[in-house]
UniProtKB/TrEMBL annotation:
Protein name: Amidohydrolase
CC cofactor note: The Mn(2+) ion enhances activity.
Xref: InterPro entries: Amidohydrolase, Bact_exopeptidase_dim_dom, Peptidase_M20, Peptidase_M20_dimer
Listed GO biological process terms: diaminopimelate biosynthetic process
Keyword Hydrolase on entry: yes
Required cofactor names: Mn(2+)
């Protein structure tokens, strides 16, 4: 790539177009059309309809059977954009508030670099995934035979991260992002007049006791050296000002990095909810669903990612032992099947202002200054892993 300025302008134009046409969940049409068009123009073979609206680009050089997967998420969020730049969302109530437009443009840039500038021996699979935000896209692609049809030996993904300065890179071995499990607790008591509580079975009091007791799980059941979060985030009743309700519903989620902790949270929550309801002679329905697996980096592949990052970012700008985050990423589902690593690329911090608004903010915008760096990282990583005359 002789003219980096022109390359950056091209990636920026791609990203800005994608920002104007946000699409959510599996309802992706314009985005995969655009990605497929760009990949095919590069001479990269494209396979579509994987995991409903996902696609994979295949670039093979040489004769080796070695392979690597690079992944970008394509979906947006159901958020009304409040930005004022000239490439705002054209779809009211939807916007790229997490930077997936930038991730897609970055991986397209990596594909172009690998096609034009790198000589390697093996196959690169460019995985463009739908529905990361609801945690179903990776599983859908896996169920659709992603790893059987495209037998990648390792896989890597990246996310822009506000709060980390531009030019900085971070990752770690082991859990880097948490699981997300959702729960619903339905308490069925007996409604009564607010002035005659002894005539009923007050589910509000029961709910309060449950909410408080759930917080003892992390403090008294989870090993203090491990991490976990239980958050009750919603409470709904059928009561009114002078009516003690008959029904209360509590909703929320839990986070952890370790599958054993994940199982412990569910077990203890179920026991606590059922026991407290039984103590008050109320009925309990406990629903617990697994939305996101924890994203757990493999040690060897994390080391490969750090080596490539040292080359692109400079070792002084690479943090190989960053603190993990409790937010969730469905890339974890890929890492349960194939070894790999997930990394963070700085999107900007408070000092420079640009790119600092948090993810999922209605005015958030991906920082175009990191497009080339991200593309170079992926290209460097893939070429190193598929280096000629190496095993």
């Amino acid at each position: 790539m002789s003219d980096l300025t022109a390359f950056h302008q091209e990636l920026t134009a791609w990203r800005h177009y994608l920002h104007t046409v946000p699409e959510t969940e599996f309802d992706l049409v314009k985005t995969p059309d655009f990605v497929a068009e760009k990949l095919q123009a590069m001479g990269i073979t494209v396979y579509r309809g994987i995991g409903k609206t996902g696609l994979v680009g295949v670039l093979k050089k040489g004769t080796s059977d070695r392979s690597i997967g690079l992944r970008a998420d394509m979906d947006a969020l159901d958020i009304l954009e409040t930005s004022t730049h000239d490439y705002v969302s054209k779809t009211k109530g939807k916007m790229h508030a997490c930077g997936h437009d930038g991730h897609t443009a970055t991986l397209l840039g990596a594909a172009q670099l690998l096609q034009e500038n790198y000589d390697f021996d093996g196959t690169v699979y460019f995985v463009f995934q739908p529905d990361e935000e609801h945690g179903q896209g990776a599983r859908a692609m896996i169920a659709d035979g992603l790893f059987e049809r495209f037998p990648m030996q390792e896989i890597y993904g990246a996310h822009n991260m506000p709060g980390i300065p531009v030019g900085k890179f971070a990752t770690c071995v082991g859990g880097i992002m948490g699981s997300e499990d959702n729960f619903i607790i339905r308490i069925r008591g007996k409604g009564t007049h607010a002035a005659r509580p002894h005539m009923g079975k007050d589910p509000m009091v029961i709910a309060a006791e449950i909410i408080t007791s759930l917080q003892t799980i992390v403090s008294r059941n989870v090993d203090p050296s491990l991490s976990a979060v239980i958050s009750c985030t919603e409470i709904h009743t059928d009561g009114v000002r002078n009516v003690i309700p008959a029904n209360v519903e509590i909703r929320g989620d839990t986070r952890s990095y370790d599958p054993e902790v994940q199982a412990l949270l569910e077990k203890r929550m179920r026991i606590i909810c059922n026991s407290i309801c039984a103590m008050h002679e109320a009925e309990c329905e406990f629903i617990y669903t697994h939305e996101y697996s924890p994203t757990v980096n493999h040690a060897r592949e994390t080391a490969y990612a750090v080596e490539a990052a040292n080359q692109v970012f400079g070792s002084e700008n690479v943090d190989p032992n960053t603190l993990p985050m409790m937010t969730s990423e469905d890339f974890g589902a890929f890492l349960e099947k194939v070894p790999g690593a997930f990394v963070f690329i700085g999107n900007g911090c408070e000092k420079d202002g640009k790119g600092y608004l948090p993810l999922h903010n209605s005015s958030y915008d991906f920082n175009d200054d990191i497009l080339i760096t991200g593309a170079k990282f992926f290209a460097e990583l893939a070429s190193r892993r598929l280096l000629k005359n190496s095993q």
